[in-house]
Write a structure and sequence with these properties.
Elements (H helix, E strand, L loop, with lengths): L1 E10 L3 H12 L4 E5 L6 H5 L1 H19 L14 H24 L6 E3 L2 E5 L2 E4 L3 E10 L3 E3 L12 E3 H4 L8 E5 L3 H12 L3 E5 L11 H12 L3 E3 L3 E8 L2 E7 L5 E6 L1 E4 L3 E3 L33 E3 L10 H17 L12 E4 L4 E6 L2 H5 L6 E7 L4 H5 L6 E7 L5 E8 L2 H13 L4 H5 L9 H17 L15
Parallel strand pairs: 1-2, 1-6, 2-3, 6-17, 8-15, 9-10, 9-15, 10-11
Antiparallel strand pairs: 4-5, 5-6, 7-16, 12-13, 13-14, 18-19, 19-22, 20-21, 21-22
Helix pairs in contact: 1-8, 3-4, 3-6
């Protein structure tokens, strides 16, 4: 057994782990990275980058069909599934290659291959070959796709999103389980590439939306294109030759059995903290078995253990993982002199069409505790100038402001170029701008951002009225 003594051990070499390693090294500490799987981040291998490649192909196909609305008529469209997936895999491998280049630059003595387990708060064992006495640990073990019990062990036709990007051709049909970001992005992309797609949701959620009005519009707009089935429960699934026989039950209790080449499960991800000996650390765990931690320092209790990225399940997004890792690694290096790190305004985007984005405080968060200290402004994109010019006039933007201070608090939206609108609004939110200050900023014409100005003007008018009586406050009840 090889024995090491180090200052900091980072378990995992994804976005959070690599960021933590660099931050701890910057503190001058002897730091090692431990990895049990292939190098390369979730984003590059099976997440944000390959999914955007598939979406880009679907957008190209969709624009050919949509061109007729402008009076531009293309010839017969032919989608070559093998070529589509070949580009996805080829470019995916390039992105992974960039990550691997960075890993290659890390000294070999700092990299340990194998599965790490805690034997105590300051002792790790990697497989059966290395024992590590460590002063501080950063858990950056990432997450894995969740597979419901009723879909386990069915056969090769039941897959998770990670497996999509190894396809060599497009399938004939796919049932997508889940209307979260990943399910909607992949479901719509495959639909636009000619795959028969049905998307099932246990409830009525759409991506990360919590605002009931935005949720209603999103369900209507996306449902006008996609076979979206809310309030559906998976009853059973059985592999039958090259297809899966999927039985579902709707909200009225009616059951329906259909055949699909694949059942793509997109029902969330599970943090990888259940097989690392976390029970030997003495850490307090939450109901899901995740160590309780401080989101400003990433420190688990008062221990010398820190947790970052998808492993802590706080905001499982790449920018957050990078920030988590930097904070965790920095504090692991300087422990016990722990400091709060920079936490940015929350920002999440779904690259559907129209795009979905949320930023700052969500509607659900603002409604917590039944308080009604915020006003709402809104703008529809149906008649917004630039949106109509582009034939992308679908969606709704809702913005939130604080009574009294006039501070801009956040927004939820589905609409054209929401990825750009949400960044502008997120910057204003992080800068703690008031709604009045935001309206003093320049707006060109004609641009999508004029819709944002409309919503802010509406919000300013509501703030000017002052806090209403409780009965006239924003409706905080859930529902589509």
């Amino acid at each position: 057994m090889n024995k090491l003594t180090v200052d900091v051990a980072v378990i995992g070499t994804g976005t959070a782990g690599l960021s933590a390693y660099r931050a701890a090294r910057a503190q001058g500490k002897r730091t090692v990275l431990i990895e049990s799987g292939p190098y390369g981040t979730t984003c590059a291998r099976v997440g944000c980058m390959p999914s955007k490649l598939l979406i880009a192909a679907s957008e190209a196909a969709h624009m050919v069909h949509a061109a007729a609305g402008f009076g531009v008529h293309a010839g017969q469209v032919r989608i070559d599934g093998q070529e589509v997936m070949a580009r996805v895999r080829r470019e995916r491998d390039r992105f992974v290659g960039f990550v691997l280049e960075g890993v290659d630059n890390i000294p070999d003595q700092d990299k340990i291959i194998g599965h790490a387990r805690f034997l105590g708060p300051h002792l790790l064992q990697v497989d059966d070959h290395t024992s590590i006495d460590v002063s501080r640990v950063v858990i950056a073990t990432g997450s894995r796709p969740y597979l419901p019990e009723e879909l386990r062990g069915v056969g090769p036709g039941v897959i998770v999103s990670d497996q999509v990007f190894d396809w060599t051709d497009l399938p004939e049909s796919v049932a997508v389980i889940g209307t979260g970001v990943i399910g909607l992005e992949l479901g719509q992309a495959l639909h636009r590439l000619g795959v028969r797609v049905s998307i099932f949701a246990r409830g009525g959620s759409v991506a990360q939306i919590s605002d009931p009005e935005v949720l209603h519009v999103a369900a209507r707009v996306l449902g006008s294109e996609l076979d979206l089935r809310f309030q559906h429960k998976v009853v059973s699934a059985r592999q039958d030759g090259a297809e899966v026989l999927l039985t579902t039950r709707d909200g009225a209790g009616a059951e329906r059995s259909e055949r699909f080449q694949y059942v793509l499960v997109s029902a969330g991800r599970t943090p990888n903290v259940d097989n690392i000996g976390i029970e030997t650390t003495g850490l307090e765990l939450d109901a899901k078995g995740i160590p309780v931690f401080d989101p400003l320092t990433m420190q688990c209790g008062t221990s010398a253990i820190f947790i970052a990225g998808d492993a802590n399940n706080e905001r499982p997004l790449l920018p957050e993982a990078a920030d988590h890792g930097k904070i965790a690694g920095d504090n692991a290096g300087r422990y016990p002199n722990v400091h709060p790190g920079l936490r940015r305004t929350p920002l999440a985007i779904a690259f559907t069409e129209p795009q979905v984005a949320t930023l700052g405080a969500s509607y659900r968060e603002l409604c917590t505790g039944g308080s009604h200290k915020f006003a709402v402004g809104k703008a529809s994109f149906e008649n917004q100038g630039r949106s109509r010019v582009m034939l992308q006039n679908h969606g709704l933007l809702r913005v939130y402001g604080e009574y009294g201070s006039g501070l801009f608090l956040g927004a939820e939206m589905i609409g054209p170029r929401a990825e750009n609108l949400s960044h502008t609004l997120a910057w204003a939110c992080q800068a703690r701008m008031t709604v009045a200050q935001m309206l003093e900023m320049p707006f060109y014409h004609p641009v999508i951002e004029e819709g944002m100005r409309t919503a802010l003007r509406d919000l300013a008018a509501e703030l000017e009225k002052g806090a209403p009586a409780q009965s006239k406050a924003p409706d905080c009840t859930p529902g589509v």
